[in-house]
Design goal:
single chain, 16 strands, Phosphorylase Kinase, domain 1, six-stranded antiparallel β-sheet, phosphoribosylaminoimidazolesuccinocarboxamide synthase activity, SAICAR_synt/ADE2_N, binds ligand Q0Z, alpha+beta, EC 6.3.2.6
Length: 322
């Protein structure tokens, strides 16, 4: 799932909080605000050259992360594919929830992979919904028989489907740290009972709607993280939505509970990094090596395949450099 931002000029940031891989571009007319692992955030400058406080430019890079590292090899078109996927989902969800999108008219250098958005007061909660048991939910279930404090029946296993999506919120941890699970009572204390109930309802509905659409097209969305802003006391869907970076995508035809499911998008990356061919030891703490061209190309093809399956549209890059 996607990452909280890191200040762009924090000389005291621990190493590891600073993203590796290609850096955020300098954009004329914009001030760089933050960079997350794979995305960059800017504020447009006003006529006086000051950063505006009402808008943000959200830029998806071609950076890819694996095993908590940002790899030094970008995946061509990844930023554009994920940006267009988010925009497509915002449309699919427009009857459920308003969103932050203002315009896709952005600087040429980031055309196709950037969106101008309304700058909102963000809920201080990572809103996560899970439709399938895996990851952190599975760890909690194995320890206590619960997921996010809810008692579940015995006999569930890695990859089991829930009857309906569960709301499993977490804290927004600083970059480089892992989000911690939050109880629903903690969410209520943080944002009030009314916004908490609406966030829970919307998050689970977004994942349910996502799966109605995606599963008909061969993709399972096992879980997802969404971010909400608040505007005039109403929740607004912000950030990215139902992308492989904010969600676990699984190939539906290979779903088989009882073991970890292959990742739709990162399977080739993980498989190669863990293979002897990479020469990398995950336990070493060392940064992983650059990906070979065939792994990169097959990974690019998986992102494009996800976009084309979901939307039914052919991916034609519209972005910069063409
Ligand atoms: C999103 C993020 C990063 C991209 C802040 N509409 C909004 N209003 C206020 N804040 C945000 C948004 Cl989307 C916001 N993020 C996450 C970090 C690049 C997105 F470095 N952080």
């Amino acid at each position: 799932m996607a990452d909280a931002p890191t200040p762009s000029s924090d000389a005291s940031a621990p190493s590891g909080a600073v993203p590796a891989g290609p850096a955020a571009p300098v954009l004329d007319g914009y001030a760089h605000v933050y960079s997350g692992k794979v995305r960059d955030l800017y504020a447009p400058l006003d006529d006086a050259g000051a950063p505006r406080d009402d808008l943000l430019l959200l830029v998806a890079s071609d950076r890819i992360s694996a095993f908590d590292f940002v790899l030094d090899t970008p995946v061509p078109d990844k930023g554009e594919v994920l940006t267009r996927m988010s925009l497509w989902w915002f449309e699919q969800l427009a009857d459920l929830v308003p969103n932050h999108v203002v315009s896709t008219d952005v600087p040429d250098a980031v055309r196709g992979r950037a969106v101008l958005v309304r700058r909102l007061e963000m809920l201080p909660v990572e809103c996560v919904a899970r439709a399938y048991l895996t990851g952190g939910g599975l760890r909690e279930y194995r320890a206590d028989g619960t997921v996010s404090g809810l008692t579940l029946p015995e006999g569930l296993t890695d990859g089991s489907r829930f009857p309906e999506p569960l709301f499993t919120p977490s804290t927004k941890a600083p970059e480089g740290q892992h989000d911690e699970p939050m109880s629903y009572a903690e969410v209520e204390a943080a944002v009030g009972p009314s916004l908490a109930a609406r966030a829970r309802d919307l998050t689970t509905r977004i994942l349910a709607r996502g799966n109605e659409i995606a599963q008909a097209r061969g993709i399972i969305v096992a879980d997802t993280k969404v971010e909400f802003g608040v505007e005039a006391d109403e929740l607004v869907l912000a950030d990215e939505v139902l992308t492989p970076d904010s969600s676990r995508f699984w190939p539906a035809d290979q779903w088989e509970p009882g073991h970890p499911q292959p990742s739709f998008d990162k399977e080739f990356v993980r498989e190669w990094l863990l293979s002897r061919a990479s020469g990398w030891d995950k336990a070493s703490g060392e940064a992983p090596p650059s990906l070979p061209d065939d792994v990169l190309e097959r990974t690019r093809a998986k992102y494009v395949e996800a976009y084309e399956r979901l939307t039914g549209e052919t991916f034609r890059p519209r972005g910069a450099d063409r």
